[in-house]
Amino acid sequence: MITVTPGMRRLCASVLGMEAIVVGLTTPVAINVQGVPAGTAVTVGIGLAVLCVVVAGMLKRPSAYVAGSLVQVLAIVSGVMVPMMFFLGAIFLVLWITAIFVAHRVEGVTSR
To answer: What InterPro entries does the database record attribute to this sequence (predicted)?
Structure first.
């Protein structure tokens, strides 16, 4: 079970906040550059951005970190619409994992 610490919540919320902006901005790119139908692009892009914000608000619960990990996978899968999201999604996945591990390490050192 994940032990949720204040530092971990802050770091992970920061990652999700930045990710919400990036995936939200994929909507016009998908429509104008990639030719994705507007309904599909809005559903995926804005839906994923809203999901990032909702999960960021739930980070007091350990289950939210599982949901956050799912968001990272969905961000990578959104590369089907906008190929650059394969790369950006992978970066956010690395940031997500790093935020969790760094927070555990820092919180563990400061608690001693």
So the answer is: DUF4233 (IPR025327)
C-alpha separations of 34 from 15, 22, 39, 71 in Å: 26, 16, 14, 22
81 and 42 Cβ atoms separated by less than 8 Å: no
Structure tokens at 38: 């507007």
Domain-embedded: residue 112: no
pLDDT tens track for 36-95: 999 999 999 999 999 999 999 999 999 999 999 999 999 999 999 999 999 999 999 999
Contact yes or no for 23/48 (Cβ under 8 A): yes
Cα within 13 Å of Cα(100), Cβ side: 16
DSSP label of 2: -
Rg (CA), the chain: 15
Residue 32 within any structural domain of the chain: yes
Q: Which domain holds residue 74?
A: 6-105
Residue 94 resides in a domain = yes
